[in-house]
Amino acid sequence: MSKNDRESCTLELRGMSRHFGPVKALDGLDLTVRPGELVALLGPSGCGKTTALRIVAGLEVATSGELLLNGERYNETPANHRDMGMVFQSYSLFPNLTVSENIDYGLRARKVDSDKRQKRVIEMLELVALESKAKSYPHQLSGGQQQRVALARALAIQPRVLLLDEPLSALDAQVRGQIREEIRRIQLDLGITTLFVTHDQEEAMAISDRVGVMSHGQLEQIDKPIVLYNSPATAFVATFVGLANRIPAEITAKGKAKVLNQKVNILESAEPFPEGSKVNVIIRPESLELVSESDDEATRGIVALKSFLGPMTKVGIAVEGAPLIHLNISSRDVRKLDIGDKISFRISSDEVMAERV
Amino acid sequence: MGTTASGEVEKLMKRFTLKWPLVITSSLLAFLIFIVPLYGAAVYSFKGNGGKGHSWVNYQWLIHQDGFYPSLLTSLKLAVLAAFLTLALMVPTMVYLNLKGQKYKSLVDFLCILPLIIPVVSLAIGAQVAMPKILQNSEYELVFFFVIIALPYTYRALDTSLQTVALKTLVEASRSLGASWTSTIMLVIVPAIRSGITGALFLTFALSIGEYTITSLLHWETFPTWTVVAAQQNILGAIAISVFSFVGAIALLSIIALLPKRNAQRVEVDE
After folding, report:
1. So where are chain B's domains?
2. Which of the residues B176, B182, B185 would you substitute to probe the A interface, choosing the one with the greatest number of A C-beta atoms within 10 Å?
3. pLDDT digits 0-9 by tens, A15-50
C-alpha cells in the first residue's frame, strides 16, 4: 500500500537570499533536492540553514532568489497553499487536540471527506506505531511520541516536500537515535522529497542521501556523506564534518609540506601555496597511527588526555610547538597507555588538506 | 537518601509552622473586613416589615418593582454584547501584536491603560460626540463604552494568556498544514488561550453589568442606575439589592475560578 499517492517532486532554490538589515542570513543559496531524496543542511548556529527551510515552507520571505517545485515558481504562494509538511524542533502539537485530531487537522483544513480522513489518520497512526495513543492529548505523551505525532501530522496531508527543522534536538540521546531511524525508514517507504536541517553532523550523516554544509549563508559543499568526510572541499567542511586536527606546517615545495617534522603531500588547491609559507594542515585522527619509538621519522609526544568513546578511545597528545593532537585508538589497545606516557606517531594519509594561516 | 527525605520533611514542617499563624491572621482579617458587613447586610435584607422577624419580603419588593426586569435584561443584553465585541476586537489584535506587531505593543499597552486615567465624564461626553448619530440615540452606544472601560483588564488577561503558549510555532504549524488564518485563530489559538478568553469575557461582562457612572451621565437606564432610584424608596429593599448584586457578581467570578485549566496540566510520561 502506498501511503503517499502524490508523486515525489524536485525542490530547487536558486540564488536564494534573505537579508535582515545588514546581516545576510542567506546569501545566494543554490540547492536542488531530487525527487525522493533526503538532503540535510548542516551547519553551525546562524549559518542560514533554518532560514532556508523557513523560506521553503513559506514562513519567511526571501529577499531575492527563486523557489521552484518541479520547475514551478512558488515564491508568492502562501504557506497554507504550499503542500509542504513541516516538523518543528518544539513538536508544535496543538495542545487542545488529541493525537488523532492533530493528525486530522491538515486534512480538515483541506476539506477532505470524513471517511477518507479517518482512514488516513489510522494509516498514519500505524506508520508511527502510535495506535494506542490515538485518544491521548499531547501533554500525556513523551517527547519522542510527540515528535512521532508531529511527523504523522506532517505526512497525513501527503505533502509534496517534507521539511524537518531540527526535529531531534529536543530529544534525549537514546530516543534521538530511534526517531532518526524511524524518520529515514518512513522517508524511504514513502519516497518523499525531504529537506532536513540540523546542526548535528552525526544525524545528518546517518540518514541523508546528501549533506549540504553551510557557512555564513552559503553552501560550502554538498555531497554524499562519505565524500564530504573523505574529500572535503574546504577547510571549513573538513573541520566541521568529523573531528580534525589543525596543525601548523610549512610549505617546502609545490604540493609538499613539513608538519611535525614529517613530510606530507598537500592536496591541490585553487591558489597554490608559495614555498616557505606557513599553513595549517588538516588531519583526521584516523590518519595518524602509533609507531614504535625506534621509528626515526615519527613525531614524539606525551599522552595528555584519554576520552573513552566505547570501541574507540580519543587520545590527546601534547607535542612541542603544536596544539593538542587527537588520535583515535582502539579501546583494547589504549589500556596500555597512561597519561604522561611517551608516545610516537606518524601521519599515514597520502595527502592532506591545507589552509592559509 | 533517607536523610535527604527527612530533611525535606523537616523543611516543609518548618515552613508550614511558620505560615500557620499568618494564615489564621489573614483569614480573620478577611472575615472581619468582608464577611461581617456582608453577613450584616444579608441579615438585614431578610428582615420583615418594620424590621421584625425574617422573611423574603424585601426581595419580593425588589422583583415586583417597575423597571426591575427591563433594566436587568437591558444590562444583561448590553453586557453580553460588550463581552463578545471585546473578544472580536481584542483576540485578533492581541494575536497580531504578539506575532508580528511587537514594536506596536508598548503603544497599545499605553492606549489600553487610558480608560483608567481619563476621567469618566470626559470619556463619556467626548466619546459620545464622536459616535455616529444612530448610536448616540441608542442604548447600544453603551456597549462601546463598556468595551473601552474593560480594555485595561481584557488586554492584560489576553496578553498573559498568549505569553504562556508557543504562539508563533503553533501558528506556523497550523499554516503549514494548510489552515487559513480564520481556522488557525478559531481552532488553534482560541482553545490554547481559553482561560484568558474566559477571563476577558467575564471581566467585561462583570464590569458592564455593574457600570453606573457613564450610563447615568448619558441618561440611560440599566440595572445599576435603576437600583439607585429604587433604593431611595425602601432602605431594607436597598440592602436586598446590594446583596442580590453582590451574590450575582460572586457567582460570575466563581464560574471563572472553577473553569478547568487544561493547558496548565502536565503529565510526566516515561519514554
Report:
1. 61-258
2. B176
3. 999 999 899 999 999 999 999 999 999 999 999 999
